[in-house]
Write a sequence for this structure.
């Protein structure tokens, strides 16, 4: 038999009084997949992750986790770990004691794997410090360590990179990548596309409770959108002129040139940009820098979420 998907959601609706937080959500997450959930504040990310963790129940629609339909009872589905709105920790206990207490609550042998979990998230040096003094990033990492102890097959994390410094991010991303390679599905939310870009193979973009895109990252990146590009050349006047003569190129900002910086911002599709670069080289103008102002994924995200807002 095929392994069941980690998540299969169809037509999920969740309201809070008048507010429709989730408005017919479909979501598929394969086992071993790193799946990013992105969307502006209030899009419904935390609400959706809460349903996966059994913290709330949908008003309608169907939800299967690791092949088992989720019922009406509030309980963490078998094989699932994670947290929304920050991990629940005991401030007066040390990091190590927190993990031992959480393991004991579940009836596990109290010290099993604790040192290893702390090491994986980079908290070995503060294992005996009280959690009270921990930064947000350290709490996030301790919460992840707690989830690791349960050896989940689906890990659900709400904004896990909030508060992480670059070293913390490296630890967390390493842990998540290894888990996924071992077959654990990871669903994580972020309001930042670059975090998801660095980590996830698949992404679901939510806007005001609806899915506006769901699928592989690569598909999102290659869709033929016009983007803004920074363009620095050896002759900005000639570049300005050529940009005006090339079909499909629009100069959106030439204030850099007026300030003597030789930098233009042009809006273009990739084929139009190719034509401009060929034209520049042909005219003996050297291209010193050419890069999108925001990443293609960030641009797609902004496009799709703005479109959804204006459709309402
Ligand atoms: N417990 C709640 N009570 C009332 N409204 C809620 C509750 N939780 C979320 N909402 C509303 O549901 C919508 C989605 O919220 P949320 O899932 O937290 O979004 P996100 O995590 O994407 O920022 C928002 O409009 C929010 O105000
Ligand atoms: Mg949220």
């Amino acid at each position: 038999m095929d392994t069941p998907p980690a998540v299969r959601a169809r037509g999920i609706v969740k309201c809070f009084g008048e507010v429709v937080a989730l408005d017919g959500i479909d979501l598929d997450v394969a086992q071993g997949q790193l799946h990013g959930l992105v969307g502006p504040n209030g899009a419904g990310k935390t609400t959706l992750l809460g349903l996966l963790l059994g913290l709330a129940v949908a008003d309608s629609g169907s939800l299967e986790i690791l092949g088992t339909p989720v019922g009406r009872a509030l309980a963490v589905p078998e094989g699932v770990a994670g947290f929304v709105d920050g991990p629940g920790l005991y401030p007066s206990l040390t990091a190590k004691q927190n993990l031992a207490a959480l393991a004991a609550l579940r009836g596990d042998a109290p010290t099993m794997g604790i040192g290893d979990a702390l090491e994986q998230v980079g908290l070995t040096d503060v294992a005996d410090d009280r959690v009270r003094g921990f930064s947000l990033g350290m709490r996030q990492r301790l919460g992840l360590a707690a989830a690791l102890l349960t050896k989940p097959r689906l890990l659900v994390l709400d904004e896990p990179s909030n508060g992480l410094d670059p070293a913390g991010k490296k630890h967390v991303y390493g842990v998540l990548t290894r888990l996924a390679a071992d077959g654990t599905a990871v669903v994580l939310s972020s309001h930042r596309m670059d975090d998801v870009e660095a980590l996830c193979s698949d992404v679901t973009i939510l806007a005001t409770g609806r899915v506006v895109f769901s699928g592989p990252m690569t598909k999102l990146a290659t869709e033929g959108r016009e983007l803004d590009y920074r363009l620095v050349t050896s002759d900005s006047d000639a570049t300005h002129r050529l940009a005006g003569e090339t079909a499909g190129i629009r100069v959106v900002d030439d204030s850099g040139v007026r300030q003597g910086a030789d930098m233009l911002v042009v809006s273009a599709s990739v084929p139009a940009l190719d034509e401009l670069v060929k034209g520049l080289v042909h005219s003996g103008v050297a291209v010193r820098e050419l890069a999108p102002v925001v990443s293609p994924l960030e641009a797609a995200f902004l496009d799709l979420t703005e479109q959804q807002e204006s459709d309402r």
Observations:
- The pocket of adenosine-5'-diphosphate (ligand 1) is lined by residues 16, 19, 21, 39, 41-47 (CB under 6 Å).
- The first strand starts at residue 7 and ends at 16.
- DSSP finds eleven helices and 14 strands in the chain.
